[in-house]
Design goal:
Blueprint: H1 15-40, H2 55-61, H3 70-87, H4 123-126
Helix pairs in contact: 1-3
Length: 128
């Protein structure tokens, strides 16, 4: 039996960090929405299917996407590939619906692989 452990932290970002977080949320949303758009344009009768752009290609298309962490964008791309795998899985007992576009008003989040960030704590601030 494997035990997984997760930690949730509340952060209070500075203005500069808040701007970077919002840029990252926006860029991750662009990657997801691009993949959803390509997924929804799939046509069984069409001989040549449209392939989604990679994060590198999207960054070349939109210069402003290079301001955020590439790891966050790549993680969202991997998340969509996992969604597609689950969507088309024959062994899945419960069918999942089509992917939805993300917008600014919904819950904003992104994931990073563990190796891509570190946290530092000031022990004096944690003590009571």
């Amino acid at each position: 039996m494997t035990i997984l452990k997760a930690f949730k932290y509340r952060i209070y970002p500075t203005t500069k960090q808040d701007v970077l977080l919002n840029k990252t949320f926006g860029c991750v949303r662009v990657v997801w929405n691009h993949n959803v758009e390509v997924f929804n344009k799939f046509d069984k009768n069409q001989t040549e299917q449209l392939q989604p752009l990679t994060t590198t290609q999207l960054k070349q298309k939109h210069e402003w996407m290079s301001e955020v962490s590439a790891a966050a964008l790549q993680q969202k791309e991997m998340d969509f590939k996992t969604f597609k795998k689950n969507y088309f899985s024959k062994s899945r007992k419960k069918k999942i619906g089509r992917p939805a576009f993300k917008n600014r008003d919904s819950n904003q989040s992104y994931r990073l692989p563990n190796q891509k960030f570190t946290t530092t704590f000031d022990l004096k601030k944690l003590e009571r």
